[in-house]
Design goal:
Largest interface: A-B, 30 and 30 residues
Radius of gyration of chain A: 19 Å
Distance between the termini of chain A: 43 Å
Strand order of the largest sheet of chain A: 1-4-3-2-6-7
Structural class of chain A: alpha/beta
Helix content of chain A: 25-40%
Order of helices and strands of chain A: EHEHEHEHEHHEHEHHHEEE
Oligomer: homodimer
Chain lengths: 281, 281
């Protein structure tokens, strides 16, 4: 497995692979990899001849008050995980390789990016769409793998690929959880011991909501209230949002009569965590 | 030469060509082709093994009061010109093939698109960037050809390709003119006989400005005044803008001490025409 920092090195490697008729899978990440990322790389490795992982903490998807500077980084550990999971190439560029000083082009979206995380993170998805476009143009993969934990990101990337006719197949992969149900996230490392215990409230509350739907409840407001009340029972938790939306348009759903995404964002102390489940009807 | 309406037909044809190691040139147009387009297709044909021309009047680059409905269309004539000039494939999609009802992704730009044509056409370059991105993703050419008459468009497309790491070489081609100096444009067909005669004022006025620079004048305001006064001498002409800008950043230049673009937009009756020259220093 090679680690490269230059766009041209990625391009020439992938072109060489493609000239041999090999299929290329791609896993874009911000690094500090956990078992969630590992599952994406493994799946990419099963479904393709070669796998590229990008490790790049993308500055333009962080708001001014967000955790860009403190976002955890550990290339050595990441490299070991990538190699073990079956990656062939890590693309690990500096900011200067990705963004010229007079960088001025953005990929943006209406609709899907307004609600959920887009509400409290107004420039986030513009940054995500722009960097994912760039990475797709650099790597030119056949397939790209995204975790379902970032459900809105997955829906946004799928829509962008459809709208801009990007010739990449987007593959969503299930959330990987800790034994107590907490969704794996690089940001879990921010949590103190006490906060780590409190963070289980996200999945617990979602499960209460799921049970309610399984018991026949179809009114979104009632289900949202049950989830919110459960989260509020945890002193260290502060709700950012609890929403029930159409799984592909991400528009709010009042009565559940189609497949929905039930998604939450909750601050545990200063750490903002997200979780969700999809209910197929 | 084939004419296809489906994205998948373009993709499969180009993939077949590329699998044979052939280079693909691309000329995106809105149709109603003139000798300017023809020169692009000829150049593409000289420099590549295969040439794709797209003919698509892109609705999202027209403002609500602009000429989308009346924009001239003639596929039969366009096909003959393409064939004669050496094209191998015309991509001529319906709007529905290009834009879903819930289309919601846009490629946009800061800076370069604010001045010149961007001032009076605020959504124009967002529409251009978006459709050019889509067409590049559909055709996946090695090189794409744009006329220098739309100097701002050429600068914007070059910047977009650089910023988004699009793996396409952009080739600019010189303005083609009528014998009396009027730059070829599909919109020239809008002009009455009297307006057609008046339209020569664009190039005439630019030439006066050029002469002034060649004579050593370096103050942009003085040169702009000479060009404006000349245009105003024509009763049917109304100035949209006369500007002198840096050829790549498109920022206004007060004193000419580097290569500049001198660009104008002028209404002749209801028809908006553009023209320009680049002065290399």
């Amino acid at each position: 497995m090679r680690v490269v920092e230059r766009i041209n090195d990625v391009r020439s490697t992938v072109k060489e692979w493609k000239s041999q008729g090999l299929k290329v899978g791609f896993v874009p990440t911000m690094g500090y990899l956990h078992e969630g990322h590992e599952s994406l790389i493994k799946k990419a490795s099963e479904e393709n001849n070669k796998v590229v992982v990008s490790i790049f903490v993308n500055p333009i998807q962080f708001g001014p008050k967000e955790d860009l500077a403190s976002y955890p980084r550990d290339l050595k550990r990441d490299s070991e995980i990538c190699e073990r999971a079956g990656a062939n190439l890590i693309f690990h560029p500096e900011n200067e390789e990705m963004y010229f000083n007079d960088f001025s082009t953005f990929v943006d979206m209406n609709g899907l990016t307004n609600g959920l995380c887009g509400k409290s993170r107004p420039i986030h998805f513009r940054g995500v769409c722009t960097v994912v476009s760039k990475l797709f143009n650099i790597v030119a993969p056949d397939r790209a793998y995204f975790g379902e934990k970032d459900a809105q990101q997955l829906a946004v990337v799928k829509r962008m690929v459809r709208d801009l006719n990007i010739d990449v197949e987007i593959v969503g992969c299930p959330i990987v959880r800790e034994e107590d149900g907490l969704a794996k996230s690089s940001r879990n490392t921010y949590l103190s011991e006490e906060e780590r215990a409190a963070a289980t409230i996200l999945n617990k509350s979602l499960m209460l909501g799921k049970e309610e739907i399984q018991n026949g409840q179809r009114n979104s407001a009632s289900i949202i209230k049950i989830i919110e009340d459960s989260i509020k029972s945890e002193k260290l938790a502060r709700i950012d949002y609890v929403e029930i939306v159409d799984s592909s348009s991400l528009e709010k759903v009042e009565e559940i009569n189609k497949s929905v995404l039930v998604a939450i964002a909750v601050f545990i102390g200063k750490t903002r965590l997200i979780d969700n489940f999809t209910y197929e009807l």
